[in-house]
Design brief:
The chain has helices spanning about 15-25, 50-60, 65-75, 80-105, 110-115, 120-155, 165-180, 185-210, 215-220, 230-245, 250, 260-285, 290-310, 310-335, 340-355, 365-375, 375-390, 395-400, 415-430, 440-460, and strands at about 5, 410, 465, 470. By secondary structure, it is mostly helical.
Length: about 475
């Protein structure tokens, strides 16, 4: 139980008592959309476990996961790729479970949850903006994969063969944008169809491969391409889904409790991360290439390649969905405005499609590595603040049953922002000099440093819990 809170500087809401009262009355009004962009997900809107699980599996079982696994297999032995995948997957599992559990309890998206888990209102604006940009980047990457794959597969046809990569990227970009406009239920329904198809095709390709390539030989086959170090490989594995792991609350908030979140993340990690990665490693060893389209064409034919390439849609809808939530949080924090989510989805969908048309896929590996180092520090701060320091837990718990948001929130937390920068710097330095696993380094350093500074700060000020300037303009 907190004895008292040390307020470093108390900010009063501008205006007279009447305007303050109006703000208090309107700040917790629910958003008029079915996906609760800037509000809690109420109990009656929670979704069945299987529906959220299929979204999770679909966000991992995709072409980019095969590309990642094939890249590992092209540069590593099977067992080297196995350990890189295991290390990266454990990191993703811990982050996903911790943040997803907090989201299930509070019913808040990642960027909105960050307001009460260390970053404050303006800090959440920065974080929301970073996530919006990152996920739009991923949208562009996946869209490029789809466009390139479709152009290559159908190049032999008379009519469809005239469509090149940019044209296909535009088609799928618009289609995904329309899907995301309909919200999380539409995303789940789409994944329910394509996830099983994707898994069946990959398993069939693996079966064909095993017919002519004994498993014993594939397990011990040397890497067909240039060597890839364990540290670099693990960072790529973690970076390949680190943004997705931190965005777990965006759909995990529709679950009922932490137990459901645990099984969702565990099953998704084993099926998607371990399963898809290691099968792709074996495929790379069997075919001697890291080109996924060539790999699938050699084993499952045109129909299989079409299904695998089309599966990018079920990952890209989550990218666009999370990006719209992050941008909505940023705009709300900066301008105190609640914008229509559909309009944001359309705007971001157009931007992401444009990125895919100009060829962002060329920066794929560098993009993954950057995400593997830059985003984990945020998760380190959020987990420590919510589970250890528990600074915002009392306010969140007091308003949880009513389904509203707390009446006030910190404006800034300079410690969290400074630690974020330091954690990113540590990750970059350790990446340059190949020291340990950069993504894990940045997360651990940021979490520990944030905890130490906040505890020491509280002792110096003679208070139990440090709080910074607050505002009643929660939304």
């Amino acid at each position: 139980m907190r004895k008292k809170s040390g307020v470093i500087s108390q900010t009063q809401v501008a205006g007279n008592e009447d305007s303050a009262s109006k703000i208090s009355q309107t700040q917790n009004e629910p958003i008029r959309d079915s996906d609760y962009t800037l509000s809690r997900v109420p109990a009656e809107a929670k979704q069945p476990f299987w529906r959220i699980l299929v979204i999770r599996i679909g966000s991992i079982c995709c072409v980019s996961q095969l590309v990642l696994g094939a890249s590992l297999g092209y540069g590593m032995s099977f067992w080297g790729a196995f350990w890189a995948t295991m290390l990266g997957s454990v990191l993703l599992q811990v982050i996903s479970w911790a943040l997803g559990t907090a989201a299930a309890r509070e019913g808040l998206s990642t960027s909105l949850l960050s307001r009460w888990t260390g970053f404050g209102k303006m800090g959440s604006a920065i974080f929301g903006g970073v996530m919006a940009i990152s996920m739009v980047g991923w949208f562009g990457v996946q869209n490029s994969v789809f466009g390139e794959g479709m152009a290559n597969i159908l190049s032999f046809t008379d009519f469809l063969g005239k469509f090149e990569t940019p044209a296909w990227s535009i088609v799928t970009g618009i289609a995904i944008t329309v899907l995301v406009v309909f919200g999380v239920k539409a995303i789940a329904n789409f994944a329910t169809v394509f996830v099983p198809l994707f898994i069946v095709v990959v398993l069939y390709a693996s079966f064909v491969m095993f017919q002519s390539n004994p498993l014993s030989s594939l397990f011990n086959t040397p890497a067909p391409g240039p060597a890839l170090s364990l540290g670099a490989a693990t960072t790529i594995v973690a970076g390949g889904f680190i943004a997705g792991a931190i965005c777990t609350p965006d759909y995990g908030r529709f679950l009922r409790n932490g137990t459901e979140v645990f099984w969702m993340t565990l099953i998704g990690t084993f099926v998607g991360e371990l399963g898809m990665n290691l099968l792709a490693v074996l495929l790379a060893h069997a075919t001697g290439t890291n080109n996924v389209v060539d790999m699938m064409m050699a084993t499952s034919g045109v129909i299989g390649v079409l299904i695998v390439v089309a599966s990018t849609v079920k990952l890209n809808d989550i990218n666009l969905y999370s990006s719209s939530l992050g941008l909505s949080t940023m705009i709300n924090a900066l301008f105190n405005r609640k914008l229509n989510r559909d309009a944001l989805v359309w705007g971001l969908g157009i931007v992401g499609t444009f990125l895919s048309v100009i060829g962002i896929i060329n920066y794929f590996t560098g993009f993954l590595t950057l995400l593997g180092v830059a985003i984990p520090p945020v998760a380190g701060v959020m987990v420590v603040d919510y589970y250890i320091l528990r600074r915002g837990r009392k306010d969140l718990e007091a308003t949880r049953e009513a389904g509203t948001l707390p009446e006030s929130v910190e404006k800034w937390n300079p410690v969290a922002l400074a630690v974020w920068i330091i954690g990113f710097a540590v990750g970059e330095v350790t990446s340059i000099y190949s020291i340990g696993i950069p993504g894990l380094n940045s997360l651990i350093v940021s979490g520990i440093l944030y905890w130490v500074i906040m505890v020491v700060y509280a002792k110096v000020k003679g208070v139990e819990t440090v709080e910074f300037a607050r505002t009643k303009q929660v939304l």
